[in-house]
Amino acid sequence: MQFPSPPLPFHRGGGSFLTEVRQIPPQLAFDFEGHLRYNRPPMSAKRQYFGTDGVRGVANKHPMTPEFVMRLGQAAAKVLGQGASRKGARPCCIVGRDSRLSGDMLEAALVAGLNSMGVDVHLCGLVPTPAVALITQQEGASFGAVVSASHNPFYDNGIKFVGGDGYKLTDDEELLIEAAMTNEALLANRPHETSIGRTHVLQGPQNVTSPMPWLPCRAAGSLA
To answer: Is the pLDDT of residue 30 over 70?
Structure first.
């Protein structure tokens, strides 16, 4: 059996997000329901936290503190989960991490932020970044997130996001997340009761000979 190659988390070559927003005025605003009214930040805007591959830093020092990461998760939920929300569906995020000591702490903070904004989280444990990209794409999730700082020293950590297509976010999307982090009214608009997000652990197939035992089994309803 041949398995599809996972999409690498690089920039899109011209995806629908940029195609759809080229004619929209270069403004950033949010409507009273907390949705983005315009999908393109000012052309002069510069990213403050996102670098070439997500947000990174020394774990437990700003910006890689639990408080910051939770707020980052809330902002990402508003920006990356709005497509599902507008369709009346529950946004879903695939989350993986590496084996750094701070991974448990920051993953918990990220998940709390996502859940608080109504995003269901599916944890796939210790996996490489391309695995999260592959699962996100194949399972039709709204977006994915990885708690990892790649080749950085062990005391660092980071958060990187991929879109629903499994590819790295555009600069515009990262700017929108940063803008959402500073919008108190936006982040104060949170779901209640049964609309709060839930967290599940992805279960792989029972076939232990599978070359990817962490891969969720769609047929078994892993994302149900």
So the answer is: no
pLDDT tens digits along 63-105: 999 999 999 999 999 999 998 877 888 999 999 999 999 999 9
**Per residue in 140-168, pLDDT tens?**
999 999 999 999 999 999 999 999 999 99
Amino acid at residue number 71: R
**String of b and e for 87-101 (b: at least 16 CB within 10 Å)?**
eeeebbbbbbbbebe
Residue 119 phi, psi (nearest 5): -95, 125
Q: Distance (Å, rounded) from C-alpha 24 to C-alpha 77?
A: 22
pTM above 0.90, yes or no: no
Name residues whose C-beta falls within 8 Å of residue 192's C-beta, 6 or more positions apart in sequence: none
Give me the amino acid identity at 109. Answer: A
Top pLDDT among 69 and 46 is at: 69
Q: Which two tokens stand for residue 192?
A: 């209640």
Is 195 part of the annotated catalytic residue set?
Answer: no
Burial class (CB in 10 A: 0-12, 13-18, 19+), 207: exposed
CA neighbor of 54 nearest in space, from 6, 115, 10, 105: 10
Q: How far is CA 1 from the centre of its chain?
A: 30
User: Strand ranges (DSSP E) for 71-193?
Assistant: 92-97, 120-126, 143-147, 156-163
- 218 φ/ψ angles, rounded to the nearest 5 degrees: -60, -40
Please identify which of the residues 16, 150, 195, 210 carries the catalytic annotation: 150
pLDDT on residue 36? 55
